[in-house]
Amino acid sequence: MFSKTCEYALRALIYIAQQYKNDSRVGIKDIAKNIHSPEHFIAKILQDLSRKGFVQSAKGPNGGFYMDPQNLNISIADIVKEIDGDKLFTGCGLGLDQCSETHPCPLHEQFKSIRQDLRIMLETSKIQMFVDNLDLELTYLKT
Fold it and tell me: pTM value?
């Protein structure tokens, strides 16, 4: 459903947020190991997300990635849109460019409701919610 870049970004942001609740900044090696991502790939993703303000970074011996408290309220939809665009929320289920209300594909009506439900779920899902569920061991991040 999401690109590999988006999957790694989501896992990394949730992991960083979980670690930072203890005021711990997290290095690339630690992030890559714990979310099962290639180091160079996650480094590039996090550099981009840092430039866009989704995560913060600090250099030096006590450096690493961390999250400002305000970023804990970022929705998963915001991250997905930033990385993968909004095609997940607006695109055709069959990938047809000309699919529309006036020129629907065979899946149009069914897929429209799925897209809407997905949009609502991702817009109401915040990073903090995932951190809380991980802390309560209701969910797990490791693959």
Answer: 0.88
Residues shown for the chain = 143
Residue 45, class by beta-carbon neighbours within 10 Å (0-12 exposed, 13-18 middle, 19+ buried)? buried
Query: Alpha-carbon distance 115 to 124, whole Å?
Result: 14
The CA R_g of the chain, rounded to the nearest whole Å, is 17
> How far apart (Å, rounded) are the C-alpha atoms in residues 105 and 115?
15
Of 49, 20, 46, 19, the residue nearest 34 (C-alpha): 19
> Which segments of the chain does DSSP mark as H helices, in order?
4-20, 28-35, 39-51, 76-84, 87-90, 108-124, 127-135
Report pLDDT digits (tens) over 66-107: 998 899 999 999 999 999 999 888 888 898 989 888 999 999
